[in-house]
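Protocol step 4 of 6: structure prediction from sequence.
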Amino acid sequence: QVQLVESGGGLVETGGSLRLSCAASGTIFSINAMGWYRQAPGKQRELVAVITRGGSTNYADSVKGRFTISRDKNKVFLQMNSLTPEDTAVYYCSGGPIATYVDYWGKGTLVTVSS
C-alpha cells in the first residue's frame, strides 16, 4: 500500500503563488508516475500535471506556463504562479504505474484564490 499526504494549500490573492507538496510512503517502488489533479465545486476531477520517475511531464493546457511540477525521490511538488480564481479547487496528489493511470490518491488540499 501507498500513502500520499499533501500539504501547502491555502488562501491566496489573484496573481499570487503557492507551492504544494506531496510525500509518498509505503510500497513506493510501485509508483512510476506522480501527479496532481484538482476538483472545483460542481466539476469533475481533472489532471493538472504529472511527472514520471524519468522526469517526463505533462500539463493541462490551462496551467501551462504558470505551474511547474517537480519530483524528488518520494516527494512531488507543484509550484503554482499567477493564480486566478479559476484555479480554486481541492488539489489531490496521485500515484500510479504510468502517467495515465492512478492507483493511489491523497486526501486533498484546498487552494482558494480570491479575486
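Step 5 (inspection) to follow. The CA atoms of residues 23 and 88 lie 22 Å apart.
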